[in-house]
Amino acid sequence: MTIWGQSRQLFGRERELAEVAGRLLDPGLRGVVLLGDEGIGKSSLAEQAAESLSSIMVPYYVCGSPVLSRMPYGILSTYLGRATAAEMESPLTVLRTVRTHFQRLTETNGLQTLLVVDNAQYLDEASAHLLTQLAMSGELRLMVISRARAPRIHELLSLARDGLLARIDLGPLSHEAVHEFCVSVLGGPVLQASTTLLNRISGGNPLYVKELLGRAQRQQRLVEANGAWFLRGRPDCLDTSLVDLVKSMLGSRTPAERNVLETLALAERLPRSVLSAVADDEAVRSLVIDGIMEILPDRDESAHLVQLLHEEIIRSLVPAARSAEIRARVLGCYAPGSPGSSMNPGDISTLLRQTEWALDCGDRLPGEHLLAASRAANGIGDAARAQRFAAAITAVPFRAAAEVELAVAHAKQGSYGQARDRLDALGKRMSADKAAVWDRLTLHRAMFVSALSRTSGPGEGLTALTDKWKTASAPAEDDPGVAEQVRVSMEVLNASALILDGEYEQACTLLAALDTGGLLPDAAELAVLIHGLYAEVLTACGDVEPALQQAAAAATMLDTGGGELQGYAGFVFVRQAQAMLHGGRFGQLEQLLARMHSVPQHQLTLLGGSLGVFEAALEIHRGRLHDGLRKLRPAVEALRENDPELLLPYALGLAGYAATVVADGTPAAGFVAQVPTVGYTGPRHLWLTAQAYAAAAEASQSTEGPPSGRLAALAAEARAGGLHSTEKDILELCLAVGDLTQVGRLAELTADFDGAEAQALHAYAVAVASGNPDRMVAAAEDAIRAQKYLVAVESIGHAIRFYGNHGNLRRQRALIQQLRRRREELAGVTVSYLSPSLHLVRLTRREHEIVDLLLSGATTKDIAAHFTLSQRTVEGHVYRIYVKLGISRRADLESAYRALEPGHRSSSLVR
To answer: What is the side-by-side strand order in the sheet with 165-169?
Structure first.
């Protein structure tokens, strides 16, 4: 199996490669035994290791197979061509023949021999014994490549235990390596959440990743748009070569072992006691020893298959009648009503799988059971299963509740229009049927999804909906506890309407008055919504610390909810991420993003775009525009497909700005024009920020001096609405594009603002306003500590400009050289990103062209002829370039230019 990328690079195996090569060179060892699962990349690693040692050793390759395993010395037959039948009967003669062959090769080429034995799990006993003798002789180096559990290599493994061979177990690729592999294979940026999903499905197996990529493209679940890639749905492997691999594995197992595999594939997970009742214990032990299944150390000693793809493929191979038979046997092990039985599953995953399995087998389940399963699926964000279960409900008493669950499922997928349409139709039917009465839980969930389904536009519709639900809830308000819960629900809907209208301060006051402690025990969803909305408005208004507390309270409820609230992970994440971003809690945001990649698989495709936006925003807030743009491009395309949190306008503005500043030539530069065409604006604070990024992109391209007042007008609009975090972001952009008239307001706003980011911006604004270059340099140090690297470079840039304007070229050059030296500390951010106001340290287009030609070897005379200029004019350009780069001789030009302007490549006049 080959896992080379387009440049034949081996991904994520640097440590193992160094270990293999080092062990082969170790004079105290005779070689290496490289062990790993099928498709894990053993052969590619061995090939790379052998290639790295080609000046010392000459590799010779043999490869085992099932056919050769049935022949004595089958794998070594290449080296026994002249041996007679009588000689083949003598192990000693065969050994001498093989040794003589390799001795002759060593004498001929003068290099040590390396014998690489691939697929050693297929060794016959005679070959294994002979290879053991060769290793012990020390006349050659041996590299044995095998699956981890191969009884026929026990002699070679005994040499590893004795210290003659080094045993190296090759594990799965890391997520980072899988991501690099996918980027290389697809030839463009890939959404991080998509590669996380591929890594989780494949178990980090490169062969499985490669097959999944092909299958996902054929299914049109892996799509490319504007040069970026993302998964729009979970791929399967049902038409790939992996099916044949699994069939081969099943064919090699005993009937009892196949029964275990089929049972676990269909049930997903079973207590050890149940599995023992329906399967053979010896078969279970054999599969555990071979690493195909494992027993977890939980209370029930739950058993499951190790490889998720094996589970999926085996399930697809089991006929329906056989599946029904296995299900009946499994259910027969439970007492009626016991945890894990059909009617009373022990946990959410068991409930969902057993319900799905029953429907697959054609069973008719009670409406109560299907409703519970649908609510549970919505609770963990599994909208597809929730819709399937709700749609299967036919019993009239449960139809209204089923319609609400279908609306919830639509809302969880970001299909807010469909959710509202279902609720409106249901409300009309309930109003027309005088005998119809809302049950408390159904009413509560209907109101909840109404609030969740808010989109951009006036809040009048949501206010009207509040009145409608108040009327509908009247019969249920006899219970004081219910009445209070309904009142709180109405207030949440009113707060949502205020947020839609941009009345954040009023919404903040309303939400602050709500007490989640007095809600009924089953109102956890409502409490999560209150904490989340409150965090959102607090963040937008600039109260970052209280916002972080509210977001943390919502996150704690998710963590302690036993998985029942997992469906709201995206809602809570976005509010928590916004608070961390505005508070400059960049390290905490990195940790949050890492945790979000462990959400259930079905949520990774739904939330992938949202995760990608904040992964990119984190880099861009730090000033790493190239890195941010690389992550943002696939995130934008994913949001066009799924945008449950209405982030697309913001993402388009952010991407368009970054692409304009770094001038990378990707389609992202055109995203600015798409901001007003999305069809919705999203939350007002993000909409203003999106417009600001678009305006900043346009200002960055301007060559007509000071930028227009569009950014200042947007900052004023944010200030008038009390959206101080938004105003802060816009004022930072004002300075980034060279509008220094806003520096005083930025200093004033950030003086009492929470968080390290605001403190760094405050020091920067105060320093620029003071005109003191020493304070500018000190502000840069504050910005570095806050990881605001572009602000740090901007601050030093202002100091450089000051010294240039005052003729202090020595100090100016010293600061430019300091930027060069500290490039790594500044995370690669360079003066190529600086605003037009700092033009003294930015090269003009003509100066870039001249530097390119100088680096290609052209003389000033060559350049003058190329541009039809006088040589003296060119020499003047060269002098100004040297001043800007802080150098005095041509020998330093390349290093200085690459440090400060890394994105440009040389052209050439010299052939």
So the answer is: 57-63, 112-118, 141-146, 31-35, 165-169
Residue type, position 343, single letter? M
The secondary structure of 525-541 as a DSSP string is: HHHHHHHHHHHHHHHHT
Give the model confidence (pLDDT) of 861-873 as tens digits.
Answer: 999 999 999 999 9
Q: In the beta sheet, which residues pair with residue 60?
A: 115
Rounded CA separation 688/681 (Å): 9
**Tokens found for residue 91:** 């192990």
Structure tokens at 652: 């388009």
Check residue 474 and report its DSSP letter.
G
- Per-residue H/E/C for 177-227: HHHHHHHHHHCCCECHHHHHHHHHHHCCCHHHHHHHHHHHHHCCCEEEECC
- Beta-strand relationship, 165-169 and 31-35: parallel
pLDDT greater at residue 879 or residue 464? 879
Q: Measure the CA–CA gap between 539 and 544, rounded to whole angstroms.
A: 5
Residues across the chain? 911
- Among 599, 567, 593, smallest CA distance to 580 is for 593
Residue 5 has pLDDT above 50, yes or no: no
- Which of 356, 385, 411, 362 is CA-nearest to residue 646? 411
140 contacts 102 by C-beta, under 8 angstroms: yes
Rg of the chain on CA atoms, in Å: 33
Please identify which residue in the block is written with the tokens 């227009």. Answer: 708
Note every long-range contact of 879-885, with CB atoms under 8 Å and residues 24 or more positions apart, other chains counting.
Answer: 880/847, 881/843, 881/847, 881/850, 881/851, 883/804, 883/809, 883/812, 883/813, 884/816, 884/840, 884/841, 884/842, 884/843, 884/847, 885/816
pLDDT band for position 469 (cuts 50, 70, 90): low
Percent of the chain with pLDDT over 70: 87
Q: Is the pLDDT of residue 445 over 80?
A: no
Structure tokens at 884: 């800007």
E strand or H helix at 686:
helix 684-701
696: its two tokens: 């900043």
- Span of 505-519, 536-550, 742-756 with lowest mean pLDDT: 505-519
CA angle (113 as vertex; 108, 118 as ends), nearest 5? 135
Q: Are 553 and 588 in contact (CB under 8 A)?
A: no
Supply the mean pLDDT for the chain: 86
Give the C-alpha separation, 441 to 371, whole Å: 12
pLDDT tens, position by position, 779-793: 999 999 999 988 998
Do 684 and 455 contact (CB within 8 A), yes or no? no
| pTM given for the model | 0.85
**Whether 629 contacts 664, CB under 8 Å:** yes
Amino acid (one-letter) located at 838: L
Give the model's pLDDT for residue 707. 57
How many CB atoms neighbour CB 873 within 10 A? 13
Per-residue pLDDT reduced to its tens digit, 314-324: 999 999 999 99
**Token pair listed for 195:** 């590669």
pLDDT digits (tens, 9 = 90+) for 323-345: 999 999 998 887 655 444 443 44
d(CA 42, CA 838): 53
The β-bridge relationship of strands 112-118 and 222-225 is unpaired
Phi, psi of 30 (to 5 degrees): -105, 0
Residue labelled with tokens 């949190």 = 645
CA-to-CA distance for 221 and 191, rounded, in angstroms?
13
Q: What is the C-alpha to C-alpha distance for residues 889 and 585, in angstroms, rounded to an integer?
A: 43
Q: How far apart are CA 872 and CA 892, in angstroms?
A: 21
Q: Which residue has the tokens 């006049």?
A: 909
CB 535, CB 575: distance < 8 Å = yes
Q: Which of 47-56, 247-256, 477-486 has the weakest average pLDDT?
A: 477-486
- Both tokens of 617, joined, read 């925003």
Q: Select the more confidently predicted residue: 476 or 171.
A: 171
